[in-house]
Amino acid sequence: MTSDRLTLQGCSPTPLASYLKALGVLRLISSSANNVKGVAADPDVSGWWEGERFHLKSSLGHGDLLEFILQDYAPSPVIAPWNGRAGFLEGEGGTHSTREGAVLIRDVDQSACSRLRLMRSAVRQLKSNDDLVNLDRLRTEAKELGRKAEKLRGDERRTVKERQRLVDRKAKGIKSKLLPSLRSIIDDVHLEYVDSCFVISPEAGNAKAAPLLGAGGVDGSRDFGVRFAAALKKTFSFDTGRPLADSERGLRSALFKTPVRLDGLGSIGMFSPGGSGPNSTVGFEGLNALNHWDIILAMEGIVVFAGTLTRRWDSSGQGRASFPFSFEPTQAGSGVFSSVDPNRPRGEIWTPIWGKPARYAELHALFSEGRLTIGGRTARDGLDAARSVAKVGVSRGIKGFERFSFVQPGRQMPYQATPLGRIRTPRVGRRDLIADLEVGDWLQRARRASGDKNAPGNAKAAMHALENALFTMTDGNRSLEGVQKAIVQLGRFGAWLSNSPKGREVVPPPPLLSRSWLRRADDGSPEYRIAAALAGIGIAPSLVGEEVASAGPRAKNWGFPPMAAHFAPLTDGPGDSFELKTFFQGRRLRHRRIWAANNRPPTVVWSRGGLTRNMIAVLDRRMVETSIRGLEDKPLGSASSAQLSDVAAYLTGNFDDARCSELLAGMVWAKPVRLQARAPNSKSVPVTLPFAYAVLRPILSPNAALIQVCAIPQRTSIPIPPNLIGLLRSGGTSLDGREINRAVHSAFARARSSGLISSYDPIRSSGGAAALGSSRIGVGVRPDRLAAAMLIPISNFGLSSLLRRAYPGTIAGTNHSSEETPNAN
Predict the structure, then answer these.
(1) Are the C-beta atoms of 695 and 747 separated by less than 8 Å?
(2) E strand or H helix at 470, and its extent?
(3) Is residue 552 over pLDDT 60?
(4) Which residues pair with 638 in a beta bridge?
(5) Between residues 79 and 371, which one has the greater pLDDT?
(6) Which H or E run includes 50?
(7) At what angle do helices 100-110 and 117-127 cross, to 10 degrees?
(8) Which residue blocks in 93-204 are alpha helix, DSSP H?
(9) What is the pLDDT of residue 716?
């Protein structure tokens, strides 16, 4: 036969049962062991995902596939004998038990059909295992002693109970070595299912259960092996091996989604949430129709997720249990979970979606490796996995991963494999910015602190929101949105640390984020650019592009403290510098700030007040720092700057103060960056920059900047008039302009004394008063916002524009601005 394409409409990426079904079909077709004829139905079959359905390229036609499964399929031994309901721990080998598991095991053992040979062989091997036989005997004895003790009193009762405890202790000892004992006797085909349930570590002396199969092939009272055997008995005769009357109709529905009336009722369990059970339909409880082939094929696909014991090549320590694409749970990235949800998920599994035909051997290799790595280590949780996918990009043709979390809706309810969405693989990998938060193990420390049962709700909410934002960052289509959200949430978490002495005992200050964070989050808005400019205060412009922490003497005595010190209690270390702790992480030299011993040093002035109020508070504090530290220049310089159009937007009120404040709180934990200048949007409304700002801003500019752009002597220093900010602050939100007018006259007087000449100065020029229009200069401008605007760093080009407007005689003729110059009224 020629290879043809078969579309399995009944196999989709979700729910998980449907995905497992696709793996099961591909595996069975290519398996010689699962064919009664001893040869694979099609050893060259390949499969792939397209249009949300699974497709096969096979020599088998539609009818051939049905014929193989109905007549020649030999079921795998999906048996977990260590579970109490599996049929092997019922007393006397289950020979008299009427429980479903024991009955099914007896039926398999007594069957004669060839298609049950794999299961029959496994059952007989298990029955001959001494440890399993002894465990069955001891459990039976313990139960009998317990029943006997219930009928006794006094010393006789205590004696029997003590004997029961001794028997239980012996049984636990045997159970601890049962899994290694079973692995030494069972066939390879059964070993696949055992390894899908547990990974056994000889060094650690224990076993780790796979999240995919609950507590070792059982979820609550549901034993998956028993459900599998029960489904087999509903599809074909255990005596003859022939399919039962309705078997073909059910198989057509399972594979090709052919409409059919199903007589069976029940559930496939956690692999298909909502299939049945309480509140699953109209009313308080209901049972859905059950296709037994869905259970059979899904369980045949589960063995692809067999676990293994892994160890790094350079490690001689204990191995680590590893299951394919299985991770520790994280409640971020889906919008499903709350930060206060008491029911923590059991784990996560990410099912790969590949878009090119692949044989089962190739998939087996993929799942055997089955690990995502990040930063040289295996991904631990869902966030790590998302970072790995985003960093590596397309690999082995995998288009993405369907993310499932094993969630328990209520304490008394079973777990459910809940789909959390598709994680799509980018064509080209991107730099992993989240690694910056792992410096000094900061992110893990912060997670542990916020996850503590005694942690306050605002800490839990902030970390939950931060993790959600970090997850969004891994999505290439939402990277800007994710980085901005992460910056905001980092600021909120930093605010909790700032106000929590206990939190600061276990979590250091956030590490310095790379400049790539601020570049990737740049949306060009005035709010963003002003926040970035303010965040760079205290860092010399010459240090942009260098490691600020290791810049040496040039970083000292330049505008300290940094802006972050106004948000959080940071150490003011020796040498008048805010101390940075230096350490090695791997082979890289790292730096981070450290907390101050004082819970609330005087530099911390940022509060819950509005943006304008806080900016004025920072400005006032930095003026105090000038005298306290004996600084030669005004501590208002910054490694970043805003454009004049951004300042105009702030002054005119066309500005979102809350958003800027939120961004700034997070940006102070990043290295400063010079954002690329942006041309005004042709559709934007022109903004007006008040003339009073052009007069006042040069007075509050660092002397070094003035010397660079002005035709004044190198040693010129322009002190800030002591009443300047006070005048503006006292004006509050008034729009009559009186305080602004007084501040402008004070600024002109101070500038004149320092050699900064203006033709608009009423004293210096006879026509100055008329040109200035002194009684109208501050009308319509809020004095408090004008005072706060003095803190916003601007570039030398912007400063040149202002000087040409207010002090035109001081600018060298060769110095021209590259920025737009807003109208100055």
Answers:
(1) yes
(2) helix 457-473
(3) no
(4) 537
(5) 79
(6) strand 46-50
(7) 110
(8) 100-110, 117-127, 130-150, 154-176, 178-183, 188-197
(9) 62
Strands 398-407 and 348-354: antiparallel
Which of 247, 344, 334, 250 is CA-nearest to residue 290?
A: 250
Q: Is residue 118 scored above 70 in pLDDT?
A: yes
Contacts of 216 (CB under 8 A, 6+ apart): 80, 82, 83, 197, 198, 207, 209
Reduce the DSSP state of residue 824 to 3 states and report it: strand
As to burial, measured by CB atoms within 10 angstroms (0-12 exposed, 13-18 middle, 19+ buried), residue 289 is middle
Rounded to whole angstroms, the Cα distance separating 716 from 669 reads 34
H-helix or E-strand spanning residue 691: helix 691-696
What b/e string do you get for 109-136 counting C-beta neighbours within 10 Å, with b at 16 or more? bebebebbbbbbebbebbbebebbeebb
Once rounded to an integer, what is the mean pLDDT over residues 494-523? 92
Phi, psi of 237 (to 5 degrees): -75, 130
Cβ-based neighbours of 713, under 8 Å, separated by 6 or more: 755
Q: Say which residues have a Cβ less than 8 Å from residue 278's Cβ, sequence separation at least 6.
A: 284, 285, 413
Give the model's pLDDT for residue 599.
Answer: 78
In eight-state DSSP terms, residue 243 is: B
State yes or no: cis peptide before 561, omega within 30 of 0. yes
Is 368 or 628 the better-scoring residue by pLDDT? Answer: 368
Between CA 102 and CA 84 the distance in angstroms is 10
Q: In this predicted structure, what is the pLDDT of residue 489?
A: 94
Q: How far apart, in Å, are the Cα atoms of 32 and each of 40, 76, 298, 340? A: 4, 12, 19, 50
Q: Parallel, antiparallel, or unpaired: how do β-strands 308-310 and 320-322 relate?
A: antiparallel
For residue 571, count other CB atoms closer than 10 A to its CB.
Answer: 19
Q: Which residue has the higher pLDDT, 727 or 645?
A: 645
Strand pairing report for 358-359 and 46-50: antiparallel
Tens of pLDDT, residues 533-547: 999 998 776 544 444
Does 68 or 93 have the greater pLDDT score?
Answer: 68
Query: Would you state the pLDDT for residue 721?
Result: 84
Identity of the amino acid at 129? N
Question: HSE of 44 in the Cβ direction (CA atoms, 13 Å)?
Answer: 9
Q: What average pLDDT does the structure give for the chain?
A: 81
Check: CB of residue 632 under 8 Å from CB of residue 786.
no
Model confidence pLDDT, tens digit, residues 728-749: 887 767 776 788 888 888 888 8
The two tokens of residue 457 are 């709700």
**Going by DSSP bridges, is the β-strand pair 823-824/688-689 parallel, antiparallel, or unpaired?**
parallel
Q: At residue 578, what is the residue type?
A: F
Percent of the chain with pLDDT over 90: 36
Burial code (b: 16+ CB inside 10 Å, e: under 16) for 257-269 equals eeebeeeeebbbb
Q: What is the DSSP letter of 476?
A: G
Q: What is the DSSP string of 248-269?
A: HHHHHHHHH--------EE--G
Are 526 and 650 within 8 A, CB to CB? yes
Amino acid present at 140: T
Q: Do 578 and 561 touch, CB atoms closer than 8 A?
A: yes
Tell me the pLDDT tens digit for each residue of 372-392.
887 777 888 888 888 888 876
- Give the whole-angstrom CA distance, residue 32 versus residue 689: 81
Cis omega (within 30 of 0) for bond into 511: no
* Per-residue pLDDT, 550: 42
| pLDDT for res 517 | 94
Give the HSE-up count for residue 453: Cα atoms under 13 Å, Cβ half-sphere.
2
Assign 313 a pLDDT band (cuts: 50, 70, 90): very low
Q: Which residues pair with 570 in a beta bridge?
A: 595
- Per-residue pLDDT of 670-720, as tens digits, reads 998 888 776 655 445 455 788 899 999 998 888 888 888 875 666 667 888
CA-CA distance, 616 to 629, in Å (whole number)?
20
| Residue in this structure with the two tokens 């404040």, named with its chain if needed | 661
Query: Measuring CA to CA, which residue among 197, 189, 190, 139 is closest to residue 164?
Result: 139
Amino acid letter, 233: K
